[in-house]
Amino acid sequence: MRRVFARTESWPLVRPFAISRGVKTQADVVVVEISEGDYTGRGECVPYPRYNETVGGVVSEIETIIPQLKRGIDRAALAAIMPAGAARNAVDNALWDLESKSTQQRAWDIAGIHAPKPSITAETIGLGTIDEMASAARRLSKAPLIKVKLDAELITERMQAVHDNAPNARLIIDPNEGWTVDVLKAVAPALVKIGVEMIEQPVPVGDDEGLRGCALPVTICADEACHTKDDLSSLVGKYQMINIKLDKTGGLTEALELAKAAQALDLGIMIGCMVGTSLAMAPAMLLACVAEFVDLDGPLLLKRDREPGLKFEGGLVYPPEAKLWG
Q: H-type helices in 236-290, by residue range?
């Protein structure tokens, strides 16, 4: 019979990380370990208050299905008894890792996809004053891709400061639902001139109907509006791209299906993350080959990462070693 454990961990950040809806000083994660014989699979999730998730609630959700996990349910059965979200993400990815280790195969071979390659990852600048964001841009001036967190204040001024201090970086931005459609229409032309290539979830999910058919000079990406493949039909005509995060899809299994379905609808793909360790990022690397934008820099925001963690070098994130995951 399998052995199953769920635990919480807190990982301090290098510096406070601000977005339009709050500030983080640490990454609070839940880790699931599923052991069978001599092999143990691990998965990590990051509960997100935006989706009414808490660390304690996620642990409780996982504990309710431990009897089924001990009896040996697979990923398909898991999807039938758990909703998409952080709890299922940790369990699903632990099952992938367990299968990988027990069969001595890499996860991408089990999935029947190409092995991931080193990919350019966005590096993120949190919300701050113009001077603070300019300083952060200087620190990242050699990064090939920068993602900037914004609210509805001083939008073009902040972005101009970032561009001026990291002039060679490609730029994407994320207001985390902090704008209105009118704000978006007003600032989009200026942002494109500054070099912004994509805006992630600019308006609240409940107010995004105004995006439908809206002619904008910049790509708009659905994040909070897209969790699983069931959401896609409502996004076509409003967004040109989706951000796939495993904490939203409920793990790699659904994420792979979501990517396939999005491609069939000609929606571009971004691979994103919450703020967590390399264990949370590793499964998402299997989707990097189909993504226009990869945003897996969560471990770079931490004071320390797991050992071994993912390798980050020269703006690239490298596929995980088998010892880490998969």
A: 246-249, 252-264, 278-281
Question: 70-110 pLDDT, tens per residue?
Answer: 999 999 999 999 999 999 999 999 999 999 999 999 999 99
Annotated active-site residue in 101, 229, 245, 248 = 245
Amino acid at 133: M
Tell me which of 101, 147, 149, 248 is the catalytic residue. 149
Note the pTM of the prediction, 2 decimals: 0.96
Cβ atoms within 10 Å of 168's Cβ, excluding its own: 11
Pairing of strands 170-174, 119-120: unpaired
Asked if 149 is an active-site residue, the reply is yes
> Catalytic residue at 248?
no
Q: Which domains does the chain possess? A: 3-105 (3.30.390.10), 119-317 (3.20.20.120)
In angstroms, what CA-CA distances link 190 with 57, 214, 264, 276? 43, 17, 32, 33
Question: Residues 173, 182: contact at Cβ < 8 Å?
Answer: no
